[in-house]
């Protein structure tokens, strides 16, 4: 008590001097995002250890057994000798004596010079198709099966492997180059009692490192001392989690005053083994005979930057690949495109078709051998006997059965390109091109954050065009996560009804010191009545207001910093903190005259209406997922002790003494409900005075808990529970988290496109519903079903009641629709996290599926299914038959529950899911969905690091899905079908030829033309079209969201289109083969000349086929398509002028006749006219939405009608495959 009084008197004597917070040097500005207490005995500071669940904010656990942060944070685990790492301070030799810990060298590259070839080939041959082509190439090396030249047969596979290897090698080279730059950076390391520069890669665990201002941390190290006398260091963790706000870390007082260059520092740190939890750390330090506890606030991690601190010393505890940053550097999850999965089914069909063709050839060959068995002795190629030597032997004949077997294998070799190996490399190149244009799209560029769209996974671009479900976080995803204080309830009085003073009308509270004006950086609208009361100190209302704003200014971890302005006489105070909510509350307190101007590890200074007052920070209990509140114990200027508490209403009213002022409590509860209904985020504020004995009891318990070696977190939580009791309510605050620009329009567009939007939030039900209305997720026409129960039995009863309501609503809706044609009744399901515990963890999961889906069933379907049948099979059948509800709003959900909901719908419904979020609590949801999108917002980069795609604003989801997703899906679908057609038509020409050559598989087309067909002749056009073609313009796709349904209904790639393509291919191959055959029947033209004709004819045919389907022509498209035809002519001529290859000069013989050119023309007409006729017929008599919209574009472009109306297919109850 005397110490506090003396400290305060000394402050009062010095209050005429320039205050510490004004100085730009941070050496006098100390802050702590921890809790400390003032000790009369030692004056030291102890801290509570805090560990967050996967993010900077404490997670919210609403009845979720699996959501507790203790499951994720190793900081809550006990440290024993087996699980501990022993680090001897300033003794790396002893530290690494027993176990050689990792050095600080990092390696993100996958390959080395020695391992590149075997490892890359091993990874590439994970594709079964590559193994297939390898087997084909090996078979062709056998003399009995050598159809092609041995070198030519290896070329296609070798080319694909080479291209992929070059791409992988270049990417890995860039990683190695980046690693080399990083590893060779220099840092100051204590060597032989003096600091010397050392390369990062040579640093070792146990060494002392010195970091200067604005330098990046080379490793994870425990702070020993800083330039600040209280041991505080400011760091920026942008490189680690994307957060730009400054955070505070501090050194223990036991090491703060030690100078390692002048005195020997020795000690032992026992810490947990390396782990990925960047928000948790548990360790103990033995130094000078004392054992001191260490927590997350004592360690600074690799990748952070030291800010506003001249220097800091630390001891290396984790280095290189064992640092938390590197352990979290796992990259984006690997996912597989659904279109590629479906493509594998068609490849199996093609494989069966290939086997059928080979079987036909081999069986017919066997029959031919039987018919000509008497002629085989002297027949060329099949002479049974060799009479060239005195001894007569069998010659090139292996018997009837083996001949059939060999012919089958030879057929597989000849027809091998039926499985398009070039398709895989084409898909990769097309995806790279698509990603380039998505990244460069200025319409998905956010100027405010200077952020472009990021494509972190190149293999699922086309999935963006098939999304049916969007699961979205709310805070920071739909909203800006930039909090603005709106109003408050203080002492039972609501201060939200009056007219607030606008920013233009107010000058804001300011502080003048020696001619300089200090003003909060952010202005807050104030209530005139409340502003007047804040200046009254001696009334009951004034005291309530005084305590309320003291709580807002003190109960936080905010750091006040000064910012220079263009006016030398004006400086701004910028409140830096990890929580936007805390920032908003501190700015609000400053606007009403309670300005936080200084924070050190032991005290804070608040300017109250022009009078600076110092409060000793004796302890601070931060938020955790169990308490859902935080508290601070202050030593006040009047030598009293007070505990201020703020937190969620669900937990605060449990610790508020209602007997003290029941009317105030009741009024505050009513005001909270009012604020929540407006979509505001609320916190309840309370306090109580501590007697001297209560304070001493708390101080003793707190000191024992904070220095405990085992179970420290649980002990500190118990201490917090004991002190946060019997509170008197001060009031409640209301903060607005504004919607991001364009969110309502984006959600409306998504719903119009038939996409089901689910919002998963930790907010209260009232807040979530209000946000739902303002974002147009909910509408007044929707019927809301609310499931909000605390037990399994009540939850089951609610679901049963919901089933009855759904049945009634569906019946009435069907009757209304038949009479008037109106849309069906839309139902919104609103469910809370406690209910989800029972639904996701018990058999009630099956019943909630019925609630989600029942209203979408027709009357006949409902009559044919017993809704109340509780058997598992009936529930699954009902779920499979039904569609999902229009809107689902999940409140009070924990991170694992978000992932559970996504998994539920992903596994049970055959639809594409997309999850979008911005925080660490969204990571599991993002990784669970088919497509995960991270918002690079205010909550760090954990969501971005775990995502497939990343962007800055939720509204960018509309152009991403409607434009790029649609284009990518249409292009990739067409490219896959076209590749099937392109290769199959060539194989069928070879097949028809085999039928006319005694099934001997003698090919007219040269080996090199067969090889180059998929590589040079026809590869480039399909890649160019796959990257650049646009079936519809961006404007049309955004104007008519219904067009997105083509991807959901899989209209561009399905089994029907595949078989239609095969039938078209069959006809075109007949035309391509038989037109030249009939034209040259009876002539003396050789097979090589006919082979050149067939090669050129097929190339022209497939390129014109492609040209018929191109919608948007660019110069590069023309160059690719027509250039490929020209390249084919050139290659054929080059091959035929080489005398060592078969068919020497064949092309020049046949090309000199008019019949050759007539055949080319005739083949093109005969093959493509049927396709052209069918295409015109469908376009004019049975058009789909895409064709209708395309015609509308033509009309608008010709200015005939800009107000044309189009009729879209309904987006409800879309037909399934």
TrEMBL record:
The active site is at residue 473. Residues 1-45 are annotated as: Disordered. GO terms for cellular component: membrane. ATP binds at residues 473-475, 582, 623, 646, 681, 761-763, 892, 898, 921-922. It is found in: Membrane. It is a multi-pass membrane protein. Its cofactor is Mg(2+). InterPro entries: ATPase_P-typ_cyto_dom_N, ATPase_P-typ_P_site, ATPase_P-typ_TM_dom_sf, ATPase_P-typ_transduc_dom_A_sf, HAD-like_sf, HAD_sf, P-type_ATPase_IV, P-type_ATPase_N. SUPFAM superfamilies: Calcium ATPase, transduction domain A, Calcium ATPase, transmembrane domain M, HAD-like, Metal cation-transporting ATPase, ATP-binding domain N. It catalyses: ATP + H2O + phospholipidSide 1 = ADP + phosphate + phospholipidSide 2. Mg(2+) binds at residues 473, 475, 918, 922. Belongs to the cation transport ATPase (P-type) (TC 3.A.3) family. Type IV subfamily. This is Phospholipid-transporting ATPase. It comes from Abeliophyllum distichum. The lineage of its organism: Eukaryota, Viridiplantae, Streptophyta, Embryophyta, Tracheophyta.
């Amino acid at each position: 008590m005397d110490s506090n009084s003396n400290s305060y008197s000394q402050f009062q004597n010095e209050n005429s001097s320039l205050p510490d917070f004004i100085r730009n040097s941070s050496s006098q500005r100390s802050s702590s995002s921890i809790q400390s207490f003032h000790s009369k005995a030692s004056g030291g500071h102890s801290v509570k250890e805090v560990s967050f669940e996967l993010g900077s904010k404490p997670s919210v656990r609403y009845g979720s057994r699996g959501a507790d942060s203790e499951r994720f944070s190793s900081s809550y685990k006990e440290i024993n000798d087996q699980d501990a790492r022993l680090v001897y301070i300033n003794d790396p030799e002893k530290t690494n004596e027993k176990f050689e810990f990792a050095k600080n060298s990092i390696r993100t590259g996958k390959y080395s010079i020695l391992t590149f070839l075997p490892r890359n080939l091993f990874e590439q041959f994970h594709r079964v198709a590559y193994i297939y082509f390898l087997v084909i190439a090996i078979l062709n090396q056998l003399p009995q099966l050598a159809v092609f030249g041995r070198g030519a047969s290896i070329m296609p596979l070798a080319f694909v492997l080479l291209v992929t290897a070059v791409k992988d090698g270049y990417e890995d080279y860039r990683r190695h180059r980046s690693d080399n730059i990083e590893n060779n950076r220099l840092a100051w390391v204590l060597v032989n009692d003096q600091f010397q520069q050392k390369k990062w890669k040579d640093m070792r665990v146990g060494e002392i490192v010195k970091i200067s201002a604005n330098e990046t941390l080379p490793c994870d190290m425990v702070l020993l001392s800083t330039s600040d006398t209280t041991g505080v260091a400011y760091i920026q963790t942008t490189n680690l989690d994307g957060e730009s706000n400054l955070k505070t870390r501090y050194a223990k007082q036991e090491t703060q005053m030690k100078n390692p260059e002048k005195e020997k520092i020795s000690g032992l740190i026992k810490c947990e083994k390396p782990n990925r939890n960047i928000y948790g750390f548990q360790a103990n330090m033995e130094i000078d005979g004392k054992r001191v506890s260490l927590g997350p606030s004592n360690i600074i991690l690799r990748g952070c930057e030291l800010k506003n601190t001249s220097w800091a010393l630390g001891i290396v505890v984790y280095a290189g690949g064992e640092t938390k940053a590197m352990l979290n550097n796992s990259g984006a999850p690997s996912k597989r495109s659904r279109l590629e999965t479906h493509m594998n089914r068609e490849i199996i069909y093609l494989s069966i078709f290939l086997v059928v063709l080979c079987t036909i050839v081999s069986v017919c060959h066997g029959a031919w051998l039987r018919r000509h068995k008497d002629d085989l002795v002297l027949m060329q190629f099949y002479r049974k006997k060799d009479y060239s030597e005195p001894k007569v032997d069998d010659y090139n004949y292996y018997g009837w059965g083996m001949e059939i077997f060999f012919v089958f294998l030879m057929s597989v070799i000849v027809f091998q390109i039926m499985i398009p190996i070039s398709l895989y490399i084409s898909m990769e190149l097309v995806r790279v091109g698509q990603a380039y244009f998505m990244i460069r799209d200025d319409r998905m560029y956010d100027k405010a954050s200077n952020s472009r769209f990021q494509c972190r996974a190149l293999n699922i671009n086309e999935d963006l065009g098939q999304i049916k479900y969007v699961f979205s976080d709310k805070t920071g995803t739909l909203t800006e996560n930039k909090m603005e204080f709106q109003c408050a309830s203080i002492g039972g009085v609501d201060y939200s009804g009056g007219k607030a003073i606008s920013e233009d009308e107010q000058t804001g509270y300011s502080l003048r010191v020696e001619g300089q004006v200090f003003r909060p950086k952010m202005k807050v609208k104030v209530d005139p009545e409340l502003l007047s009361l804040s200046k009254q100190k001696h009334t009951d209302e004034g005291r309530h207001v005084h305590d309320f704003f003291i709580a807002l200014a003190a109960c936080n971890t905010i750091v006040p910093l000064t910012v220079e302005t263009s006016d030398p006489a004006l400086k701004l105070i910028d409140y830096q903190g990890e929580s936007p909510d805390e920032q908003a509350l501190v700015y609000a307190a400053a606007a009403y005259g309670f300005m936080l101007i200084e924070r050190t590890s032991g005290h804070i200074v608040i300017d109250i209406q022009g009078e600076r007052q110092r409060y000793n920070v004796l302890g601070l209990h931060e938020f955790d997922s169990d308490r859902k509140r935080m508290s601070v114990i202050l030593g006040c200027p009047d030598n009293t002790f007070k505990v201020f508490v703020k937190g969620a209403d669900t937990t605060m009213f449990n610790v508020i003494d209602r007997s003290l002022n029941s009317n105030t409590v009741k009024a505050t509860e009513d005001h909270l409900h009012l604020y929540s209904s407006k979509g505001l985020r609320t916190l309840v504020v309370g306090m109580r005075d501590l007697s001297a004995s209560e304070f001493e009891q708390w101080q003793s318990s707190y000191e024992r808990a904070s220095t405990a070696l085992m179970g420290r977190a649980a002990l500190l939580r118990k201490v917090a529970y004991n002190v946060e009791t019997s509170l008197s309510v001060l009031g409640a605050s209301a903060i607005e988290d504004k919607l991001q620009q364009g969110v309502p329009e984006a959600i409306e567009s998504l719903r119009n496109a038939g996409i089901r939007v689910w919002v998963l939030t930790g907010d209260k039900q009232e807040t979530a519903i209000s946000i739902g209305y303002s974002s147009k997720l909910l509408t007044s026409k929707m019927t809301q079903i609310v499931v909000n129960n605390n037990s399994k039995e009540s939850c089951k009863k609610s679901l049963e009641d919901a089933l009855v309501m759904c049945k009634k609503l569906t019946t009435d809706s069907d009757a209304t629709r038949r009479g008037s044609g109106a849309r069906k009744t839309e139902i919104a399901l609103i469910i809370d996290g406690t209910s989800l515990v029972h639904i996701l963890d018990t058999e009630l999961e099956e019943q909630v599926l019925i609630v989600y889906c029942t209203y979408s069933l027709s009357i006949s379907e409902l009559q044919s299914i017993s809704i109340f049948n509780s058997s598992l099979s009936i529930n699954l059948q009902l779920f499979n038959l039904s569609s999902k509800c229009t809107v689902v709003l999940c409140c009070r959900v924990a991170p694992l529950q978000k992932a559970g909901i996504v998994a539920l719908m992903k596994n049970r419904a055959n639809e594409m899911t997309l999850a979008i979020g911005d925080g660490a609590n969204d990571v599991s949801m993002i990784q669970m969905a088919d497509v995960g999108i991270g918002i690079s917002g205010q909550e760090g980069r954990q969501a971005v690091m775990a995502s497939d795609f990343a962007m800055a604003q939720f509204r960018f989801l509309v152009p991403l899905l409607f434009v790029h997703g649609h284009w990518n899906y249409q292009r990739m679908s067409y490219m896959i079908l076209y590749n099937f057609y392109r290769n199959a038509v060539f194989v069928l020409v070879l097949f028809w030829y085999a039928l006319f050559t005694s099934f001997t598989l003698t090919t007219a087309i040269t080996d090199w033309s067969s090889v180059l067909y998929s590589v040079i002749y026809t590869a480039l056009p399909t890649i160019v079209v796959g990257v650049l073609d646009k079936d519809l313009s961006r404007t049309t796709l955004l104007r008519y969201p219904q067009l997105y349904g083509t991807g959901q209904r899989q209209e561009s790639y399905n089994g029907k289109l595949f078989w239609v393509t095969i039938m078209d291919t069959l006809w075109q191959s007949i035309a391509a083969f038989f037109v030249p055959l009939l034209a040259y029947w009876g002539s003396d033209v050789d097979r090589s000349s006919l082979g050149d004709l067939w090669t050129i004819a097929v190339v022209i045919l497939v390129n014109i086929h492609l040209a018929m389907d191109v919608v948007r022509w660019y110069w590069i498209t023309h160059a690719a398509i027509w250039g490929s035809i020209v390249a084919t002519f050139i290659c054929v001529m080059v091959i035929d002028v080489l005398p060592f290859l078969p068919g020497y000069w064949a092309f020049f013989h046949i090309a000199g006749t008019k019949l050759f050119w007539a055949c080319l023309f005739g083949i093109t007409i005969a093959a493509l006219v049927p396709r052209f006729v069918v295409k015109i017929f469908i376009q004019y008599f049975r058009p789909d939405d895409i064709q209708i919209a395309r015609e509308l574009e033509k009309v608008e472009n010709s200015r005939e009608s800009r107000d044309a109306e189009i009729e879209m297919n309904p987006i409800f109850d879309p037909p399934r495959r």
